[in-house]
Specification:
Length: about 375
């Protein structure tokens, strides 16, 4: 689990020092920086996967640095995991409008694991890379880097917004593309087929959850394509129509997103950290409430970070799960709610209602 995150100089985030919990729900008006917080993890992922140069070429260092190079000399990040290990980096811009790694650092908490007496307390660190176009962490499996690797490669950013006819969600998948659910759920049919064949309990649980918000849905009919056994379609049956096959294109946008979210949050082997931008998009209020239940259940085994605009979704969580995001003095400001500040209000109103009434922050006024 990521227990602490620090960001400096990234997009609208001038400076951030935030403790994270098992559930982290970001709320705020449009344009305040919720998506920038989510996209910071995309930056970390591109650094780790040694795609920093390509990432910064496409987006431009001027667009990634807080108000450009004239205002911010660097982007720095720090991720602390389970109070034991941490990863940090500093990025600087070039004259070619790209970014390079000025410094890449791994950390180890000597106060953890009963090592204080031998090593002394506090954090130790190791600069593993400097003045480099790309990260070396992925290829470094010795010492502290070994443990940091295990954390960073196990957080995933998911985005199920594209539900067009040609989207990855609706098109056939390669049958053997089933190691894990892809970030865009492009292998949804293949992954569900694996669960159907090898993890029946989880597969039945997913079908049952889908029925709870789509009563016309009876069951999936998953098997390799009859004309090309290397591919598989997302086929299903409707109640009282056993002889009429349906496929992914017959699901509404909201339903197919909900199926992907259910598969993600109900899978047997959850990622260490799940990050989703506006998972409620296109969902019915009943489906949103069901989604909240799935998030809570998944958070027992993994960490959840989401941004949302849904009052219904917010109402399903406790104050300490909520992080408000506002824009002050040309920068994004993040604050976690506390029970003690809202106890009296929560006797009469839901958390979502308090958000609408501007009792808590995260509003455009």
């Amino acid at each position: 689990m990521i227990n602490k995150i620090e960001i400096k100089g990234f997009k609208s985030i001038k400076e951030l020092d935030l403790n994270l919990k098992p559930i982290n729900v970001l709320i705020g008006s449009n344009g305040v920086g919720k998506s920038n917080f989510i996209s910071f993890f995309k930056l970390v992922n591109n650094i780790y996967e040694q795609r920093l140069e390509n990432y910064s070429i496409k987006r431009g260092a001027e667009n990634l640095l807080h108000f450009g190079r004239k205002e911010s000399k660097e982007i720095s990040g720090y991720l602390e995991f389970d109070y034991k290990n941490a990863y940090g980096f500093n990025l600087e811009g070039t004259d070619n409008n790209t970014l390079f790694l000025n410094e890449e650092i791994t950390y180890f908490n000597k106060s953890k694991g009963g090592l204080t007496d031998f090593y002394g307390g506090g954090w130790s660190w190791n600069v593993i890379n400097s003045n480099s176009k790309e990260s070396v962490l992925k290829n470094n499996n010795k010492g502290i880097s070994y443990y940091v690797n295990n954390y960073i490669r196990n957080f995933k950013i998911y985005h199920f917004h594209d539900t067009s006819d040609t989207s990855a969600l609706r098109t056939p998948a390669m049958l053997n593309d089933n190691i894990s659910l892809r970030e865009d759920a492009g292998n949804l049919a293949a992954y569900l087929y694996l669960l159907q064949e090898k993890q029946t309990k989880y597969f039945k649980r997913i079908e049952h959850t889908i029925k709870s918000i789509a009563p016309y849905f009876e069951k999936f009919e998953l098997q390799p394509d009859r004309l090309n056994e290397e591919r598989i379609n997302l086929e299903w049956r409707e109640i009282n129509h056993p002889d009429t096959p349906f496929n992914a294109n017959h699901f509404s946008d909201g339903t197919i997103r909900f199926i992907a979210l259910t598969a993600l949050l109900t899978q047997p082997n959850l990622p260490e950290v799940i990050i989703i931008d506006e998972p409620e998009l296109g969902l019915h209020p009943v489906a949103i409430n069901k989604l909240a239940g799935l998030i809570k259940k998944a958070s027992v085994k993994c960490q959840i970070i989401i941004s949302t605009q849904s009052v219904n979704l917010v109402s399903n969580f406790d104050p300490e799960d909520i992080i408000t995001v506002d824009r002050f003095n040309n920068q994004s400001v993040f604050n976690r709610l506390e029970d003690k500040d809202l106890n009296k209000w929560l006797n009469d109103f839901s958390l979502g209602e308090l958000w609408l009434k501007n009792i808590i922050k995260g509003q455009p006024y």
